[in-house]
Structure formats: C-alpha cells, structure tokens
Amino acid sequence: MGFMNITKKGVAIALSAQLVLATQAVTLAQAQMLGTDTAIAKYTALADRAVLMDELQRGEVRNQIIELGVDPAEAEARLAALSDAEIATILNQMENDSAGADIVGTLFTVFVILLVTDLLCFTRVFNFVRCIR
Amino acid sequence: MLHARVQLCALHPLSILRRAASLLILSWLAACAAPFDPAERITADVPTRAAVQGVPLIQQAAFYCGPTSIAMVMQWSGHDVTQNDIAKLAFTEGAGGTYTADMIGSARRKGQLAVEISTFNQLMREVSAGHPVIVFQNLGLGIAPVWHYGVVTGYDLQKDEVYLNSGQLDQMVLPFDLFERTWRRGGFWGLVVLPPDQLPVSAREPAILSAAAALERANQLDAAETLYETGAAQYPQNWLWQFGLGNTRYAMGDLRGSRTALRRARNMAPDIPEIRANLAHVEAELAG
C-alpha cells in the first residue's frame, strides 16, 4: 500500500509539474514575437532541399542516373548529406548559370544530373560538392 | 598581420603609382597563364555591352576606398551621403581599412538592401540590369596584396573592357582578363547595394529575405517594411515575406498592419506554428 501511495504521489507531482511547465511555455510564446530570422533559416533550408529532391524524383533525371549505373536511393542519400549552406550555394550557381532559361526545364535537369555525378566523382562542376571516394 | 579581408587604399599619389606598377606586373603575368575567356566563363544570357548611368566618380580620401564605394552607389540611388558618413559606420582605424562585413553592415545601417554576390555571371547580370556592383579586389599580388574596393559600372565584351569607378576622378578601364585576376584574388567578393524598393536580379530569394531580416534587426524598420512589401510583390507565393512584414509592423507599433500581414501569411500557410503564435500574440494585444 505504501508503495502504491508513493507512486501515486509521484505521478501527481510529475503531472502538476508538467502542467505548470506547459502553461509557462504558452505564456513564454505569448510574451514575445517569434523572430523572422529563425523562421527564414528554418523554412528556406527545408524548401531548398525539397527543390533538389523533387528534381531527383523526376522520371528523366532518374532514368539518366540509372543509366549512369547509380542507384537513385544512393544519389538521394548523398544529396541528403550536403549541408544547408552547400545546398544553397549549389542552387545559387544553378540559377545563375541557367539564367534566362526555364528553371524547371532541361538546363536545371542537366544541373541536377551534374550534381549527382559530382557527388560520385565523375565530374567536377560545383566547387562546394564533396566528392565521396 | 592584417586580416586577409582588410583593404589598404594607400595615399592618393602613392596609390596611383602603386596601382600602375601592380597593373603592369599583372599584365605581364597574365601573358604566362591561360587568358580569361568571357565567352567561355560567362554562361548567363547577358548583352554584349552594358553601362549603369549616373554613378558619380568620387575622389577617395586616404584608405577610404570602402566607404567611398558605398557612397558612390548610394549617391547613384539618390541619397545624400559622403564617404565620411559611411566611414564612421564601416572603417576600422587600427586595420587601416574596411572589412567586408562592415561594408555590408554600414549599407544596412543606412537603410539599404545589401546582398553579396560571388560569381561572374551574377556580376554581369546585375550590371546589365542597371545595378552597380561593389567588388573587392587585390590589385597587387598574392604575396604583396594591394586590397581595394571599386564599383563596376559597365562592361563591353566586344572591346574587352570592364569599367569601374575606383576612388579616382577618372574611370578605371580594365581588360576582362586582368579584371578577373584582381577580383579572383579578392575571393570574387561582390556586393549589390540597392534602395529597398528595388531587388537584385541575380541573388536567390532566401538571400534577399535574409537581407530584409537584417534590416529589421538593425532597426531600419521603414526600409525593412518597404523591402518585405517589394519582396511580397515579387514572390507572392512565399509566406515568409508577409511574416516578416507582420513582425516589422509590430515592431513599428502598427498592430493592425501587423495583423493584416500575418493573416495573409496564415492564409497562405495555415499549418506554420510561427505564424499562428505571432498572430495570436498580435490579436491578444489588439483585444487587450
């Protein structure tokens, strides 16, 4: 019985502590506006990564990567290993080198394939890509 | 030992001699290496020639090539600032020069949109869009650097010429090859400085967004508001512009304006917790 009491008490204390903390967390969120900087860093990094991953999912890109003898899953894994800053740099280079052309068009496709071949050490187009070998 | 990113613009008479000497050495060295071929290196779709009109030529004071470059670009866009005004915000006395980070910071503290560029394609695209670009150059050699900031105001691919306002009363004209060498030694560092109602054409959207957030942080709220509005018009599908606009207006004390912007952001992206939190915060203040 004593043991049960202690456990109940413990649970009660833990729960009330959690309640206090939760309320405080809400109050904290209300006390201050969330900064623009943090949101930009978080959501643009996510969007940048999604742009490259989406390109990699396209049929023509996938086919060419398979033709090169590369497992698309491996290409994805290598892309995923790049840092946010590296991805931003690569996109910057792609957009400027193919300026005037449709960004989701042929040129961009070519760049994504070059990016993958860079990662595989076949080519050396992007300065910031670490070639894994 | 000086930081690599410090420029040293020597006193005026010395500087001309030194620059002439270093340019001579550079031209001579250029003969040994494969020349820069603009046709090969510039893959962006740009016209054969371009010139930015109305960038003033300002004679720099000793060591003030950094502040002078910013002053030239800001006067071009209609601001009444001198190199001394900028020097107070950017110049580092002990280093005898201006750090690149302070170039960016001073432009922002003057309410300007400042975005770095780093490639030849970006430089050409900005200049052909009518934007002067500040470049960081080493006019000397790797072992004996002569750091310098200049403003690229035009180019002519056919004549093989790059035009710079370079802190002297006459324009500096360099062949592409030589210009590329001096800029490469400066790490291809370039800076586009524009009033906040104009956007660079070669920078990525996140870079412009971050520049806007930096204006907000520097408490240049009017400029930040203008830039967020300009960005929202240019990139209407991205909620982050409205989010920044809402935060900036809140900081300005414009609660209703803030709510309008944050509501627009929420309608574009209903699931983002940051928007909901800030909107709730503003609505609570309006109600209370």
State the main characteristics.
heterodimer; A: 133 residues; mainly alpha; 6 helices; 0% strand; elongated; B: alpha+beta; 7-stranded antiparallel beta sheet; two-stranded antiparallel sheet; 12 helices; 9 strands
Descriptive account of the structure:
- The complex is a heterodimer of chains A (133) and B (288).
- Chain A contains six helices and no strands.
- Chain A has 133 residues and is mostly helical.
- Chain A has helices at 2-31, 36-57, 59-67, 72-80, 84-97, 106-119.
- The N and C termini of chain A lie far apart (64 Å).
- By secondary structure, chain B is an alpha+beta fold.
- Chain B has helices at residues 12-30, 38-41, 65-76, 83-90, 100-109, 120-128, 176-185, 205-217, 221-234, 239-251, 255-268, 273-287, and strands spanning 49-51, 91-92, 97-98, 113-117, 133-138, 147-156, 161-165, 172-174, 190-194.
- In chain B, strands 1, 4, 5, 6, 7, 8 and 9 form a seven-stranded antiparallel sheet that branches. A two-stranded antiparallel sheet of chain B has the order 2-3.
- In chain B, helix 4 packs across helix 5 (100-109), helix 8 packs parallel to helix 10 and helix 9 runs antiparallel to helix 10.
- Chain B starts with 11 loop residues before the first helix and ends with a helix.
